[in-house]
Amino acid sequence: MQRETTCTAMTYSETLSYLYASQPAFHLVGAAAYKPGFANTMRLMEALGNPHLQFRSVHVAGTNGKGSTSHLLAAVLQSAGYKTALFTSPHLVDYRERMRIDGAMIPEEVVVDFVERYKQLLEDVKPSFFETTMALAFSWFASQKVDIAVIEVGLGGRLDSTNIITPEVSVITNIGYDHTEFLGDTLGKIAGEKAGIIKRNVPVVIGETTAETRPVFLSKAEETGSKAVFASEQVRAEIPECQLKGSYQQKNIRAVLAAVEELRLRGWEIPDAAVKNGLLHVCDLTGLQGRWQTIEYKTGDNCMLPVILDTGHNSHGVSAYIEDLRRIDNLRVVFGMVSDKDADVVLRLLPRSAVYYFTQAQTHRAIPAGTLCRMAREAGLQGKEYGSVKEAIEAALNDAAADDTLFIGGSNYVVGEALRVFQN
Length: 424
Description:
There is one protein chain. By secondary structure, this protein is of the alpha/beta class. Helix content is about 40%, strand content about 15%. Strands 4-3-2-5-1-6-7-8 form an eight-stranded mixed beta sheet, with helices on both faces. The chain has a six-stranded mixed beta sheet with strand order 9-10-14-11-12-13. Helix 4 packs across helix 13 and helix 15 packs parallel to helix 16.
């Protein structure tokens, strides 16, 4: 066991500042924070007593939809009476969103205590922000003796820090072009990286496939002696009602239902009633936000303006909700993206009839609002630029008529800052 370090007590805010200052965080600095492989992770796990071996798990990868799928699975398992942990990333408002047990975020004092105890270890190992967060989460899950943890992959799969677990079932939601600088420039290569989470004799559920990705999954499953389940083929029954309303969630739900069947085959008792309750109350049970989330905003003239927020942030993710967006009349859109996404493609997907408020989140990865606005005009979109998400939202709300709808998206960071605006 690593020697613990005693230091002057920090507040929760000071602890987060220390982590951000001392460790590269992907959501802030991008590629510079990516540390593929397991050397740092295993040093942390060994020093902490190997907490990842002390609970059972479900592992979820995919280009898009893995966050929704993870939350849906956690909600179902909670509803079945299991003490259920959930590890996801990134967070939208509060860092503690990344680590939950039965929907409750990790207490601030647990975060502070972990960093104080293992500050010297962190400085010796020099892990990434994600690796430290995962170590904190796994340590907490083990100490709380959870029955099962739903673990979302951070980036890719094969070399992701979370790939040290051996789950009850693996889930791969879909494959699209994202993080190609790390994962490869073809769908086949990206699928190969995602398929890296498939473990020997552990069933894998595939949410969506293409002609290019299906053979990759079948080959990996054959190599590992793993059962491959294609959710779109196995789940034919009517999809139960779900609290997540975007039509694109239907594919995620099918993957969840297929995963539940595999868990049942492995001895987990998950009644149909628990499945229905978990889907119907997923946001209430897990705290999930930003997936076609609708807020009713009361305007100055006492009208209720629908505000929809969605974290889809690449062409594959935006394509999933674009038909829903195009069905909305009198649409105003607050939109911002980060520079490592396929903004040119995304902008050409968006409805030209909408009024746009182009903006940038408070991260140096953000595409400057002026640049995004110029790119949008080339794509046939009309709008103005705003230096902050708050300014863009205020302008859109000020312009909105009684029969308008406001959509906010393009980036996790834009949605996170928007949620803070509405919460305040």
